[in-house]
Amino acid sequence: MNAARLPRVIVTRPAAQAAAAVRQLEARGLDAVALPLIGIAGVGDVAPLVAAWGSLASRRLVVFVSVNAVLHFFAARPATMVWPNEVLTAAPGPGTAAALRTAGIDPAAVIEPAEDAEQLDSEALWRQLGERDWRGASVLVVCGDGGRDWLAEQLAAAGAAVEAVAAYARRSPAFDAAAHRVVDAATAEPRAHVWLFSSSEAIGHLEANAGTGRWGDSAAIATHPRIAARARQAGFATVREARPGLDDVIACIQSMRP
Asked: How far is CA 175 from the centre of its chain?
Protein backbone atom coordinates (compact mmCIF):
# COMPACT_ATOMS: atom_id res chain seq x y z
CA MET A 1 0.00 0.00 0.00
CA ASN A 2 1.33 3.44 -0.89
CA ALA A 3 0.34 5.32 2.26
CA ALA A 4 1.83 8.57 0.95
CA ARG A 5 -1.05 8.87 -1.51
CA LEU A 6 -3.72 8.14 1.07
CA PRO A 7 -5.18 10.78 3.39
CA ARG A 8 -4.15 11.05 6.99
CA VAL A 9 -6.84 9.47 9.18
CA ILE A 10 -8.14 11.53 12.10
CA VAL A 11 -9.49 9.03 14.65
CA THR A 12 -12.13 10.60 16.89
CA ARG A 13 -12.97 7.73 19.26
CA PRO A 14 -12.46 8.05 23.04
CA ALA A 15 -8.78 8.35 23.97
CA ALA A 16 -7.99 4.71 24.75
CA GLN A 17 -9.79 3.37 21.68
CA ALA A 18 -8.39 6.15 19.46
CA ALA A 19 -4.82 5.34 20.48
CA ALA A 20 -5.38 1.64 19.76
CA ALA A 21 -6.95 2.42 16.37
CA VAL A 22 -4.03 4.67 15.42
CA ARG A 23 -1.59 1.86 16.22
CA GLN A 24 -3.63 -0.58 14.13
CA LEU A 25 -3.83 1.79 11.17
CA GLU A 26 -0.12 2.60 11.34
CA ALA A 27 0.68 -1.11 11.47
CA ARG A 28 -1.17 -1.42 8.17
CA GLY A 29 0.87 1.37 6.61
CA LEU A 30 -1.48 4.31 6.99
CA ASP A 31 -0.81 7.70 8.54
CA ALA A 32 -3.17 8.38 11.45
CA VAL A 33 -3.60 10.72 14.39
CA ALA A 34 -5.82 10.54 17.45
CA LEU A 35 -8.22 13.40 18.15
CA PRO A 36 -10.55 12.06 20.87
CA LEU A 37 -13.92 13.78 20.59
CA ILE A 38 -15.68 11.78 23.31
CA GLY A 39 -14.45 12.14 26.87
CA ILE A 40 -14.88 9.10 29.12
CA ALA A 41 -14.75 9.16 32.91
CA GLY A 42 -15.61 6.69 35.60
CA VAL A 43 -18.74 7.22 37.66
CA GLY A 44 -18.29 8.96 40.98
CA ASP A 45 -20.12 6.29 42.97
CA VAL A 46 -19.17 2.71 42.16
CA ALA A 47 -21.61 1.21 44.70
CA PRO A 48 -24.24 0.48 42.01
CA LEU A 49 -21.59 -1.36 39.97
CA VAL A 50 -20.52 -3.42 42.96
CA ALA A 51 -24.19 -4.22 43.64
CA ALA A 52 -24.61 -5.21 39.99
CA TRP A 53 -21.74 -7.66 40.34
CA GLY A 54 -23.49 -9.11 43.36
CA SER A 55 -26.66 -9.65 41.35
CA LEU A 56 -25.06 -11.48 38.41
CA ALA A 57 -26.07 -14.94 39.56
CA SER A 58 -29.73 -13.94 39.15
CA ARG A 59 -29.26 -12.66 35.59
CA ARG A 60 -29.72 -14.50 32.34
CA LEU A 61 -28.08 -11.83 30.19
CA VAL A 62 -25.83 -8.80 30.62
CA VAL A 63 -25.70 -6.38 27.69
CA PHE A 64 -22.61 -4.19 27.34
CA VAL A 65 -23.21 -1.20 25.08
CA SER A 66 -19.56 -0.40 24.36
CA VAL A 67 -15.94 -1.21 25.04
CA ASN A 68 -15.93 1.39 27.82
CA ALA A 69 -18.90 -0.31 29.45
CA VAL A 70 -16.84 -3.50 29.64
CA LEU A 71 -13.69 -1.79 30.91
CA HIS A 72 -15.37 0.22 33.65
CA PHE A 73 -17.69 -2.59 34.77
CA PHE A 74 -14.82 -5.04 35.17
CA ALA A 75 -12.67 -2.38 36.85
CA ALA A 76 -15.30 -2.29 39.61
CA ARG A 77 -15.35 -6.07 40.10
CA PRO A 78 -14.98 -7.05 43.77
CA ALA A 79 -11.89 -9.17 44.36
CA THR A 80 -13.95 -12.17 45.42
CA MET A 81 -16.34 -12.13 42.46
CA VAL A 82 -16.12 -14.30 39.34
CA TRP A 83 -18.38 -14.26 36.32
CA PRO A 84 -21.10 -16.95 36.61
CA ASN A 85 -20.63 -19.44 33.77
CA GLU A 86 -24.34 -19.61 32.97
CA VAL A 87 -24.79 -15.84 32.44
CA LEU A 88 -24.73 -14.74 28.82
CA THR A 89 -23.31 -11.45 27.56
CA ALA A 90 -24.19 -9.37 24.53
CA ALA A 91 -22.17 -6.86 22.52
CA PRO A 92 -23.30 -4.58 19.66
CA GLY A 93 -20.03 -4.86 17.76
CA PRO A 94 -16.71 -6.70 17.43
CA GLY A 95 -14.74 -4.28 19.62
CA THR A 96 -17.04 -4.78 22.58
CA ALA A 97 -17.15 -8.54 22.00
CA ALA A 98 -13.34 -8.65 21.93
CA ALA A 99 -13.19 -6.66 25.18
CA LEU A 100 -15.49 -9.19 26.83
CA ARG A 101 -13.30 -12.09 25.73
CA THR A 102 -10.21 -10.22 26.98
CA ALA A 103 -11.97 -9.73 30.32
CA GLY A 104 -12.28 -13.51 30.62
CA ILE A 105 -15.78 -14.20 29.32
CA ASP A 106 -16.13 -17.54 27.55
CA PRO A 107 -16.46 -16.77 23.81
CA ALA A 108 -19.43 -19.16 23.71
CA ALA A 109 -21.24 -16.85 26.15
CA VAL A 110 -20.80 -13.73 23.98
CA ILE A 111 -23.70 -12.88 21.64
CA GLU A 112 -22.91 -10.37 18.90
CA PRO A 113 -24.23 -9.38 15.47
CA ALA A 114 -23.77 -11.81 12.61
CA GLU A 115 -20.44 -11.49 10.81
CA ASP A 116 -22.23 -10.53 7.59
CA ALA A 117 -24.56 -7.98 9.23
CA GLU A 118 -24.86 -4.86 7.11
CA GLN A 119 -24.50 -2.68 10.20
CA LEU A 120 -22.97 -3.44 13.57
CA ASP A 121 -25.29 -1.85 16.11
CA SER A 122 -28.12 -2.51 18.56
CA GLU A 123 -30.52 -3.38 15.76
CA ALA A 124 -28.13 -6.00 14.37
CA LEU A 125 -27.59 -7.39 17.87
CA TRP A 126 -31.34 -7.64 18.40
CA ARG A 127 -31.64 -9.83 15.31
CA GLN A 128 -29.54 -12.36 17.24
CA LEU A 129 -31.16 -11.82 20.63
CA GLY A 130 -34.70 -11.73 19.25
CA GLU A 131 -34.47 -15.37 18.24
CA ARG A 132 -34.47 -16.37 21.93
CA ASP A 133 -37.23 -16.49 24.53
CA TRP A 134 -36.69 -13.73 27.09
CA ARG A 135 -39.97 -14.10 28.99
CA GLY A 136 -39.26 -13.79 32.71
CA ALA A 137 -35.52 -13.36 32.18
CA SER A 138 -33.56 -10.89 34.30
CA VAL A 139 -31.39 -8.70 32.06
CA LEU A 140 -28.81 -6.09 33.05
CA VAL A 141 -27.71 -3.37 30.61
CA VAL A 142 -24.29 -1.85 31.36
CA CYS A 143 -24.12 1.54 29.73
CA GLY A 144 -22.92 5.12 29.97
CA ASP A 145 -24.90 7.95 31.47
CA GLY A 146 -27.52 8.56 28.81
CA GLY A 147 -27.66 7.22 25.27
CA ARG A 148 -30.19 5.18 23.34
CA ASP A 149 -32.30 2.64 25.26
CA TRP A 150 -33.81 1.01 22.14
CA LEU A 151 -32.37 -2.44 22.85
CA ALA A 152 -33.58 -2.37 26.44
CA GLU A 153 -37.05 -1.53 25.14
CA GLN A 154 -36.99 -4.51 22.77
CA LEU A 155 -35.95 -6.86 25.56
CA ALA A 156 -38.66 -5.50 27.86
CA ALA A 157 -41.26 -5.89 25.12
CA ALA A 158 -40.13 -9.52 24.75
CA GLY A 159 -40.94 -10.13 28.42
CA ALA A 160 -37.59 -9.57 30.11
CA ALA A 161 -37.17 -7.68 33.38
CA VAL A 162 -34.55 -5.12 32.37
CA GLU A 163 -32.38 -3.00 34.65
CA ALA A 164 -29.58 -0.62 33.70
CA VAL A 165 -26.43 0.49 35.48
CA ALA A 166 -24.16 3.33 34.38
CA ALA A 167 -20.51 2.27 34.35
CA TYR A 168 -19.04 5.48 32.93
CA ALA A 169 -19.82 9.07 32.05
CA ARG A 170 -19.57 10.59 28.58
CA ARG A 171 -18.54 14.21 28.27
CA SER A 172 -17.02 16.74 25.92
CA PRO A 173 -13.25 16.18 25.81
CA ALA A 174 -10.57 18.67 26.77
CA PHE A 175 -9.74 20.51 23.55
CA ASP A 176 -6.16 21.69 23.93
CA ALA A 177 -3.62 23.36 21.65
CA ALA A 178 -2.62 20.01 20.14
CA ALA A 179 -6.24 19.31 19.21
CA HIS A 180 -6.56 22.71 17.56
CA ARG A 181 -3.37 22.02 15.56
CA VAL A 182 -4.89 18.81 14.21
CA VAL A 183 -8.07 20.65 13.21
CA ASP A 184 -6.18 23.55 11.64
CA ALA A 185 -3.97 21.19 9.62
CA ALA A 186 -7.03 19.26 8.44
CA THR A 187 -8.92 22.36 7.34
CA ALA A 188 -5.82 23.83 5.67
CA GLU A 189 -5.33 20.65 3.59
CA PRO A 190 -8.70 18.90 3.56
CA ARG A 191 -7.80 16.55 0.72
CA ALA A 192 -4.84 15.26 2.71
CA HIS A 193 -7.06 14.21 5.63
CA VAL A 194 -10.10 12.09 6.30
CA TRP A 195 -12.15 12.17 9.51
CA LEU A 196 -13.19 8.84 11.03
CA PHE A 197 -16.38 9.15 13.08
CA SER A 198 -17.90 6.37 15.18
CA SER A 199 -20.28 8.64 17.11
CA SER A 200 -22.70 11.42 16.18
CA GLU A 201 -21.93 12.98 19.55
CA ALA A 202 -18.29 13.34 18.49
CA ILE A 203 -19.32 15.52 15.57
CA GLY A 204 -21.29 17.77 17.90
CA HIS A 205 -18.26 18.08 20.18
CA LEU A 206 -16.09 18.94 17.17
CA GLU A 207 -18.42 21.76 16.19
CA ALA A 208 -18.69 23.01 19.78
CA ASN A 209 -14.91 23.15 20.23
CA ALA A 210 -13.62 24.00 16.76
CA GLY A 211 -16.54 25.93 15.24
CA THR A 212 -19.13 25.26 12.57
CA GLY A 213 -18.94 25.80 8.84
CA ARG A 214 -15.33 24.66 8.54
CA TRP A 215 -15.87 21.29 6.88
CA GLY A 216 -17.17 22.18 3.43
CA ASP A 217 -14.07 20.79 1.70
CA SER A 218 -13.49 17.91 4.10
CA ALA A 219 -14.12 14.16 3.84
CA ALA A 220 -15.42 11.83 6.51
CA ILE A 221 -15.94 8.12 7.04
CA ALA A 222 -18.86 7.20 9.29
CA THR A 223 -19.41 3.77 10.82
CA HIS A 224 -23.21 4.01 10.84
CA PRO A 225 -25.88 5.69 8.68
CA ARG A 226 -27.00 7.89 11.59
CA ILE A 227 -23.44 9.13 12.01
CA ALA A 228 -23.15 9.72 8.27
CA ALA A 229 -26.32 11.81 8.34
CA ARG A 230 -24.92 13.90 11.19
CA ALA A 231 -21.66 14.46 9.29
CA ARG A 232 -23.59 15.67 6.26
CA GLN A 233 -25.59 17.96 8.52
CA ALA A 234 -22.31 19.40 9.79
CA GLY A 235 -21.35 20.21 6.20
CA PHE A 236 -18.73 17.59 5.34
CA ALA A 237 -18.40 17.60 1.57
CA THR A 238 -17.76 13.87 1.19
CA VAL A 239 -19.20 11.31 3.58
CA ARG A 240 -18.74 7.58 3.08
CA GLU A 241 -20.06 4.77 5.25
CA ALA A 242 -18.04 1.78 6.44
CA ARG A 243 -18.58 -0.99 8.93
CA PRO A 244 -16.48 -0.34 12.05
CA GLY A 245 -14.10 -3.27 11.56
CA LEU A 246 -10.50 -2.39 10.75
CA ASP A 247 -10.51 -4.10 7.33
CA ASP A 248 -13.72 -2.32 6.32
CA VAL A 249 -12.41 1.08 7.40
CA ILE A 250 -9.11 0.55 5.57
CA ALA A 251 -10.92 -0.56 2.42
CA CYS A 252 -12.98 2.63 2.56
CA ILE A 253 -9.83 4.75 3.02
CA GLN A 254 -8.17 2.99 0.11
CA SER A 255 -11.16 3.78 -2.07
CA MET A 256 -10.42 7.47 -1.50
CA ARG A 257 -7.02 7.19 -3.20
CA PRO A 258 -6.68 9.97 -5.82
From this structure: 20
